[in-house]
Amino acid sequence: MIFAALAAVASLSAASQPADLPPVLVVIHSAEGDITLALDVDNAPTTTCNFLKYIDAGRYRNARFFRTVVRETNDNPNPIDVIQAETTAGSDDPGFGSIPLERTRDTGLKHLAGTISMARDGPDTATSSFFLVTQDTPSLDFGGGRNPDGEGFAAFGRITQGLDVARRIQRQAAVAEQLTLPVAIADIERLGPVPAICTAFEPAQ
Predict the structure, then answer these.
(1) Which of 76, 119, 124, 153 has its Cα between 20 and 30 A from that of 101?
(2) Is 162 within the bounds of a domain?
(3) CATH of the domain at 104
C-alpha cells in the first residue's frame, strides 16, 4: 500500500509540484551534538517524505547511530565513509513499508561529503535506516560498485551544520563496523511545515 502511495508521489512530483521547492530543514539531536540537514524534497520527494513521516511519528526518538565505516580500514573493493542510524526497532525495522528507490541517475544528487541517504538491501527495499556520508563517495551513486546491483543509493539531502559531529562519530571505536558504544539520538526535529507534496497520499497509521 505504502509503496504504491509513494510511487504516486514520485509521479506527482514530475507533473504537478511547483518548481524549485525549498529544502526541508531537520535537526538530529545526538549525544555528540546536533546535525542540521537540508532535505531535497524538490529532487527526491519520495525519500524525503518517507523520512519526514518517520520523524513526525516519533520513530527516531531514542534511536542511535550504530555503525561506522572508514575507507582506510574497509577491505571492500569499493570502500565508503559513512555512519548509519537505526530506530529503536533496529536497522531492519519495516516501519511503514519499503519505498521506491530514487536513483541518483534520476535525481541528479550525489554522495558527496555531508549527504544523507537511505540504507537498503535490494532496490526498492529502503524503510527507516539512514546513513550520513563523511567524505565524497561516488561508489554509492548509480553505477557505482558498492552495491553489486549497481543501482546505487537514494541521496536526499545534505548536512548544513554538524559535519564535524558526523566525522567525530565515525572515528569512535568499533568492532566489525559496529560502534562499541552506539551514539544516542534523542530525537530528530523537523523545522517548518511538511511540504504539500508529502500530503498527496494518506500516511500509514
Answers:
(1) 76
(2) yes
(3) 2.40.100.10
